[in-house]
Amino acid sequence: MKIILASQSPRRKELLERMGIRDFETISPNVDESAFHGLPPEELVRRLSAEKAAAVAGKAGEDAIVIAADTVVALEGSVLGKPADELDAFKMLSALSGVRHQVHTGVTVCRGGEKQTAHEVTDVTFRELSEREIEDYIATGEPMDKAGAYGIQGYGALLIQGISGDYYNVMGLPVCRLSGMLARFGVDCLKLAARQG
């Protein structure tokens, strides 16, 4: 069974492998994300994941299973994208300091004419951060290519006081929800993992 991940994200590749799926291809979807700006976070990630899946499915063939995802960080309903520069990263991290925000991921699985799209949300709470801590974190370089200007799987873990929901969702792929979706397409992740173990 051919499986295609519609992403070049190293984190999503790693998480798919952790799910027991080792034999898959990656294809980068060509989607104009700016066309969807202004949508509420839940609708935005659902629409973008579906668009990414559709963009790759056309090249994949009828029998291939395509997995696509989109993740955003939202604070009080406003989407925080990747920072434009270090000042932008400083503003984002200052806004997140000491408060709870949400990480939304839309995930779509499709094969032929069959498609499923789902949405996962995780609450993340930052501890209070000093200006010096924010500057030091930015100096690591980690925030610059991450939505919301942090990565939970890296040094960003030092900023996080609490989390409610799927940890892997914050990394960019809600693995529990995705495994249930894949089961409906005949992919049993635990069986795949057992064969490799």
From TrEMBL:
PANTHER family: BIFUNCTIONAL DTTP/UTP PYROPHOSPHATASE/METHYLTRANSFERASE PROTEIN-RELATED, BIFUNCTIONAL DTTP_UTP PYROPHOSPHATASE_METHYLTRANSFERASE PROTEIN-RELATED
Enzyme Commission number, as recorded: 3.6.1.9
Site (Important for substrate specificity): 11, 71, 153
EC class (word): hydrolase
Reaction catalysed by this enzyme: UTP + H2O = UMP + diphosphate + H(+); dTTP + H2O = dTMP + diphosphate + H(+)
Task of the protein: Nucleoside triphosphate pyrophosphatase that hydrolyzes dTTP and UTP. May have a dual role in cell division arrest and in preventing the incorporation of modified nucleotides into cellular nucleic acids.
Localization terms from the record: Cytoplasm
Protein name: dTTP/UTP pyrophosphatase
Gene Ontology MF: a single term: hydrolase activity
Record flagged with keyword ATP-binding: no
Keyword Mitochondrion: no
Major place of residence: cytoplasm
Keyword terms: Cytoplasm, Hydrolase, Nucleotide metabolism
Entries under Pfam families matching the protein: Maf
